[in-house]
């Protein structure tokens, strides 16, 4: 199937020439010797290893700390493609926020029969413990990482909405830094939107959702600690934002207010970017055996004295069982058609869908409703007979635990393999920030690439790598000096220039 | 009926604690058949208290104490007027829809033995309300009522294998049985007027409510075998006993703790 895929640089299947807009990139690929590309790739990976951007692989005997392989050939979004994609992302994230506000409040969407009630009420991701509570400014999903796949120039599909604590943004930033250093010529050739303002934008977002009446909010990043596989990212974000990185033991709640212990005494905390799961937030409300949590945190939240980013209870919005209803959810809250489609999804809890899936196991991808990271998944076309039979038995036994999707011809990007540059399948996680003033899409993101030939599994725990993701700026920006420009991005006006350095300033 | 409640909870720590944070679900709320005439929570040390609500709509009191502290005594006293309602709950503050209460939890997990029992003692002809009454009676008949303190973390399935049951165990078994019949069911913590006046009990009371379309939430108390009427004071509801527990606490410090609870419910004006 890799043969029929759209290549984001080389163009549609059968095309003999590079996509015209990316001719310069095609030349760069052509003219730079493989050995040189490999040298740069290794230089980048050496830096990542020194920085300690590692992750632990689950299920391996030795608790191996590995770096995620980096590929030197970037993936590129043309300006127009990005504009359309951004509109879809903004619409989707606005709907996710509206859905969370509704489902923990009035539940209009259930009363109107758009979603089956049992799917929400019986779902462990719907947290009754926080029902009726409302985050400051009504913002729930401050940071979303919407996983997308692509099958053609403008054909994007949402694979997964990550509305809890999506990770990977440090790769977006570190990959860009490496590319600027190792391949500066590409940034002379192309006007690439900068991503290095992300920490500033994140901090701005955090401050914007501080409880009402707080003029100079104190923000912190809450980490489960340095054993966590994403600890590097936690400390990186705290560092780049210039805020404290804290663990639960550094925070106390008193009188429904959160305080941070410091050498200089107690400091009131207004906004917490937590990188721990709901279960571990507050042992008085969630898991009582949790040592990671802050006793009283939910009381402080319920009293409106602290913003928790992302809000507790968000798991119901990115749950795989809810996912298949997302087009209806978007339509319900936005009043318009869903601009970013889902991948077609069969809900195995429905008998007809189950029958179709069982009849076509060789062609579909089957996923556990509550699985993640590429575990508990069947990729029909590459599975063994035994794996298919195992899944058949599991599906018949517990159909409600599974969904299935067609195997899409995921787009490819040339990627350095043993034998030289070859097409490899990619996906994409853009980061979308929501503050009290609106939604913004960061012009870039995390591109994950399946390094094995023909593989569609891009998860880092399953042998995936990453690439830089270029978003090209509008034509006139190529002629732009140091002055600056304003660009309407999905309903939100975003100022480039002063707030956000152009490519020259960056390189 | 005018009921007066005196509920004392004492924690003694083997080592002084540097901080104590507790969430108390110890305040009853008004319904059509329950009027809280007076209610107070007294703490025997310098504590900061904050009122709020949990996700189930229960009234909570957050309690914050700085150490060093080697013990705490929480004294809850009050008077509640109750009236006869045939067990149907009217006018309670509800945040969540009944469908939520079909959800199993760790201590109210689905259990084949309980489901079989529920199926065996009921017939479809009884209708939902009849079947729930039958389960209530059948549980009451099957187990000896144990007025003592419940064993921590004992789930319904494990409780079903024993001969006697505390009010908590009765209620959680009822919940599992009712859900197995398709009825949303939840745990209620509160107080019960005992037959012998001025009886000291080592634990508050617990019972269950099940939802029947058209009627609403109906109380069932398999410990007594009846539906709660004027003898019960309803305080908090949740999916299971842990969720409705009078105290959820966290302390910062070494060592263990000893808990003493003394509950007296009496009838006023006699």
TrEMBL record, chain A:
Origin superkingdom: Bacteria
InterPro entries tied to this protein: ATP-dep_Glu-Cys_Ligase-2, CP_ATPgrasp_2, UCP005522
Domain Circularly permuted ATP-grasp type, residue spans: 74-450
Pfam family of the protein (one): CP_ATPgrasp_2
Name listed for the protein in its UniProt record: Putative circularly permuted ATP-grasp superfamily protein
Organism: Sphingomonas aerolata
From TrEMBL, chain B:
SUPFAM superfamilies linked to this entry: Cysteine proteinases
GO BP: proteolysis
Entry annotated with the keyword Glycoprotein: no
Keyword Transcription regulation: no
Pfam families membership: Bact_transglu_N (PF08379), Transglut_core (PF01841)
Domain called Transglutaminase-like: residue spans: 159-224
Entries under Gene3D superfamilies matching the protein: 3.10.620.30
InterPro entries: Bac_transglu_N, Papain-like_cys_pep_sf, Transglutaminase-like
Molecular function terms from GO: peptidase activity
Keywords of the record: Hydrolase, Protease
PANTHER family xref list: BLR5614 PROTEIN-RELATED, SLL1049 PROTEIN
Protein name: Transglutaminase-like putative cysteine protease
Organism this protein belongs to: Sphingomonas aerolata
